[in-house]
Amino acid sequence: MTIHIDQNPPANQAPATAHPIRRSLGADWSVAALDGPVPREVRQAVIPATVPGSVHTDLLAAGLIPDPYLDDNENLLAWIGLTDWRYTKTFAWQPGGSTQTEVVFDGLDTIASIELNGHPIGETRNMHRRYRFDLRPRLKAGLNELTVTFRSPVRAADAASLHLGYRPHVNHHPYNAIRKMACSFGWDWGIDTSTSGIWRPVTLESWSVARIESVRPIATVTENAGTIDVHVEVARASDATLLVAASVAGVSATVELAAGETTALVRLELQEISLWWPRGYGEQPLYDVAVTLTRTADGAASTELDTASKRIGFRTVEFNTTPDDDGTPFTIVINGMPVFVRGANWIPDDAFPHRVNRARYLDRIEQAEFANINLIRVWGGGIFEADDFYELCDERGMLTWQDFLLACAAYAEEPPLGDEIEAEARDNVGRLASHPSLVVFNGNNENIWGHEEWNWKKRLDGKTWGGGYYYEVFPRIVAELAPQVGYTPGSPFSPGPTPENGGHTPNDPEHGTMHIWDLWNQRDYPDYREYTPRFVAEFGWQGPPTWSTMTSSIGDSPLTPESPGMLVHQKAMEGNVKLTDGLLAHYPLPNEIDAWHWAMSLNQANAISTAIEHFRSLQPHCMGSIVWQLNDCWPVTSWAAVDGYGRPKPLLYALRNAYADRLVTVQPRDGGLAVVVVNDSAEPWAGPLTVARLSDTGTVLAEHTEQVTLPARSTVTVPLPASVARSTDAATELLRADLAGVRGHWFFAEARDTRLGAPALDTRLDRVEGGYRLTVTAHTLTRDLALLIDKVDPAGTVDDMLVTLLPGESAVFTVTSAAELDLTALSAPTVLRSGNQLVRP
């Protein structure tokens, strides 16, 4: 391999081209049922199929099944996952100048056999891999028939489970026995679809001599300079001498590949670079790396064979896990700057993930930005998301944390599963390595915790469980293919030796990352304040979807929290019991469904606000909060901030407030109260902090003012004197802390135990560009005022929610809507909601 470097290449004559011919095979497929419990109307049908797609969506489009998301259709459609399916396509082909012709499947779900003209050409066992098959032995001039036959995923998982041996998991299907999206078999928020289908694009590729197999640029930073090591893999069909050229920002270099060589490393060095920063910390400059593959020939013009491009950014990532007096921190450090993670967990945005396109990714990421989120964790029971997701995160400075796809289960390490898991890891780490937004690869979700503390060891009886992946295979692959991305063996995870070697058990609050789930499952949300974690990677509280989503997906009459369709759309174990138990300390349980819906939505928002404000008040001791979860995959009662139809729940506004750059929060400290001021912005913050103890009429009963000064990225705690911090009548008093218009509140009693009156509100509606402006003035103390815009316009949005007003104060809600709305509709008591209505209905 010979290397040539040219900082300022001459303008040579362009070479002749012989690029691969890439032809989409996405059109004109059909699908038919084979073996399984198939209804009569489907058994003989040849159904038009969309690729990318799935059997469910094809049947739905053909009018042969009802919408799986509605009512109890999930159970009615369980037969689909028990059935084998065959996709068929006929395409024309004529021999040309190319010597190679291959079919490329970007995603097959999941156990599939591929045939061309009746002859086997390949088999697949993994939804998370890309496959390429040579068609030459069976391809013929004229028409060719390509078929993909999928085995029932339910039966395939059951059979694989028997072959590998039982290993613990948390589902009614052994999802850990095959390499399929785990939540396709259902989850405690997810519908059981057990899908089959060609879920990512299919391409026919014809080429000669050589083509680019993969491009993996790795950017590293040295002071103000940057180096890009461009790793290029080449597929060959000849022994010709090849040139691999790479360029970025006016710098180029070339590597010569002699006969038989298929890998090239092209190094590009830039003397000056601009660093890529997370959102809120700086800009996101990106650099386009162009790669060209050329054939050279003695005495003849060169021929350009293939091109590819990748976009990179320059940044450094470190994890600070150096033990300190309080245990072991877990701090993500970008470009030398510690970042407090204001995060949210991500699940597949649709139970049929082929329906998620770039526009939908952008919608979710913009909602995350609205909520002041700076990191999205892609959870390990889903998928490696499409390139569009990571590209958008690169462009917008949204940090990403990618789990390897092993979740809440023990996994066999022997073949064939072990080979598949390693192959998919190499495939996807290589694909994602260049994205500057990707800062964490994480070995698994809760599997180390389960092995150590969920009685798995006894049930495994000596069988492998996945430790080899987390401590050996995955870190080796990341070090090889993405050395500039951080790696953790699992979440939760305690840094240092493994538990077997004397290390701390996972989920230790004093060491590394933890998940907090006894809150919600057993304990009430004020108890979040009893934890002093170093980093919280999961915690959450349930709430229903928005009203319009709930009522459009459930047709029960009467609709109640426990009516049949509602229970189908509540997947958590004793979910409604936990909703009730978690509400009663704060508000009475309403008997009417509209009020129940509002109460549970508000309680979810308040629970998470309580948690996040507490975690942020602990920084720098605690340096991360990743709420479960940002989004949903279908209309369901869940922990999400955005429901399955993409509508924001009150929780999204709670996140916006609790994750704001500048936060003023009142917290219990040392038997009293303190105001904690958090400045997570890039600018200093200073001014008089005023804390007033008020009556519910707005009368100042006591007041304390103190000058505070906060540097950028800092926290200050201000203990309060007893005259302010102690109430004389808990039912009628509250605290308000204010610094430069940023406010925090503390109520001395739960809402149900206060003298909170029925809402007394004046409203005014003005038409503005793009919608409306609703001004609301309170005549009594009003807690958590919210405009539930989806009740009058399901497509509408509002800019604020969960506002607390003293008598005489006003709030302005800006509504974006194309609908014709009026003041009567927007100020209706079921639309303009507050906590007051739950205490004094």
UniProtKB/TrEMBL annotation:
InterPro entries given in the database record: Beta-gal/glucu_dom_sf (IPR036156), Beta-mannosidase-like_N2 (IPR054593), Beta-mannosidase_GH2 (IPR050887), Galactose-bd-like_sf (IPR008979), GH (IPR017853), Ig-like_fold (IPR013783), Ig-like_GH2 (IPR006102)
Domain annotation Glycoside hydrolase family 2 immunoglobulin-like beta-sandwich: ranges: 211-315
Molecular function, one GO term: beta-mannosidase activity
Swiss-Prot/TrEMBL catalytic activity: Hydrolysis of terminal, non-reducing beta-D-mannose residues in beta-D-mannosides
An individual GO BP term: glycoprotein catabolic process
EC top class, as a word: hydrolase
Keyword list, A-Z: Glycosidase, Hydrolase
Alphabetical list of Pfam families matching this protein: Glyco_hydro_2, Glyco_hydro_2_N2
Renumbered residue ranges of the record's region Disordered: 488-510
The keyword Hydrolase is annotated on this UniProt entry: yes
Domain of life: Bacteria
EC number(s) reported in the record: 3.2.1.25
Keyword Ligase: no
Alphabetical list of SUPFAM superfamilies matching this protein: (Trans)glycosidases, beta-Galactosidase/glucuronidase domain, Galactose-binding domain-like
Ranges where the Beta-mannosidase-like galactose-binding domain occurs: 44-200
Family under the similarity heading: Belongs to the glycosyl hydrolase 2 family.
Protein name in UniProt: beta-mannosidase
